[in-house]
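User: Predict the structure for this protein chain, please.
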Amino acid sequence: MENLNPFERADMIFRYLQDELNDEERAMVEEWMALDEDNRELVEGFRNSEAVEEELALLSSAEKGRAWERIADLTGNESRVVRLRRRRRLSLSVAALALVCLAGGTLFWLASGNKAGKETVQAEKRDSISPAGTGKTTLTLSDGSVIALNEVSDGALFEDSTARLVKSGGQLVYQDKAANSGQLAAYNTISTAVGGMYRVVLPDKSKVWLNAASSLRYPTAFHDSIRLVELNGEAYFEVAKNSSMPFVVSAGGTKVEVVGTHFNVMAYRDEKETRTTLLEGAVIVSDHTGKKLMKPGQQAIANNGVRLVETDTEAVVAWRQGLFHFENAGIELVMRQLARWYDIEVVYEKEGTPEIHFTGIISRHTSLPEAIEMVNVSGDLQLEIQGRKVIVKAANKK
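Assistant: Here is the predicted structure, written as structure tokens:
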């Protein structure tokens, strides 16, 4: 259970209460309950409270806030009240998930993002916003020609003396022609638009997942002493091992050097820092001030110097599973991530805008109005959608 992500853990608890687990799964839940009395009390609180289902039903009414407070009371949770805003009926599994994931932050919200069966929410405002996840991805070849990858069918896209490129199942795959290792490789650039994601398999078999509004420049074949790629934005790398040819990511004035490992690099131009997060293996992160050797579970933050911190790697790479995962994130960080996905402009009315931090998980399938509604539930901020703009200001309090 400790190794499960929050969604999997909550689903496991729900099925445990419904007696739907096999023997191995049941033993896993009971072992998790035995590890900590709080875990047991959480699960048993749902089992023993006859009023929970009645209270959950209220979450779809106008009394969402008060209903959630009562559910928190029923489970004996003394943390600051979790507030959850949704327009549809919540299952017990989702409610359990929210309670399992209580983090004690300023605010916690969660949405599962089911595409089907949602009520229309502020339809007249949503129509002007591109649906989440519809951003286009383009490939720029060395001769300057551009291929819209969302618009071409699977199959071979081009072939030259160094490599052959194939589109297959929503990803690009480069096939290196080793026999022509003496040839000078060309450079390609793959770019995702706002609201887009894409995966590319490089000539050395390294895999790269690009987040929204990102680009990666790379050679069509690796024949030099290093495998050098250039990143703008965010990407997750699974690097193929090759001890004789290190893999180097150049991003935002930072270099990440590896032989074979799994890591994430976030280097958007509108962020003050470049963040490299290591999941497996070892990497060296450097800038003009020096170098740092990273261990798994660490994040290197580069901004006129590199410092290492421990981090929640699952939260960092949640975007690969189609999730926003915020941990004590300020409103500006939250809005920058929403802007990259929903293609919106964010405008702040600075005067009187409170400092508030958010902890929580939102599916990227959630509509923009619903995501904005979850931020507004804090009661301290008022976000308004005006065409393609979202206005952020302090809430009017009576």
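The two ends are 45 Å apart (CA to CA).
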